[in-house]
Amino acid sequence: MRKAVGWVVGGLDPLNNWESMLWKCFKADTPWNDFDGVKKKPRKYEHPANTPTRAFFLRVPFHVWEKVAKRHDLPMPQNITIAQTGEAIGFWAWILENKIPITLCEGAKKSGALLTQGIVAIALPGIFSGYRKENDLSGRNYHYLIPELQPFADGRNIFICFDNDEKVQARKNVAIASARLGSLFEEFSSNVRVVRFAGEKGIDDWIVAQLE
Q1: Residue 23: which of 3, 44, 45, 52 has the closest Cα?
Q2: Where are the alpha helices (DSSP H) in 42-197?
């Protein structure tokens, strides 16, 4: 049996009182390949089989919470509990309560990069992972937000920030996913904006480029 070496990322579960989310993502140091005919494609990320994907709500330390509070000129709660892991307990419940703007991005590393800048980011495992498709009684399909995003569809500002890809099909997919996701939030009076940036592929790369 092949031994997989890599890293695992999870987060907190808004559907379970912000406890640790059981659903996680694994990235192997040496990805194995999927075969599509004669074409091999590395599987960069692995998710639990036969299980709907989830969004990532990363744990944050106190200094990140402080950055977010200063950016939005909001007071922080008193007596914040700091876990042994360094997590500042209650961050996401505070975000939800105060209707702080949310940035939706693809991948936990990108949300982590944004959070370090004081920008609240929820990560999706893929650009189409923020919503699901079902059929109504007449057989017509419709889309709806995944359950963990639904509490944030409350009229707050939503920013959609997916990768800036050079491939034509990838750009088309990003446009489709952004439009569908944005329209679902707009149904709940959210102010949605799609973020575009030039030069780097991902927002994390763009942040690094600005710091150099």
Answers
A1: 52
A2: 62-71, 91-97, 108-116, 168-186
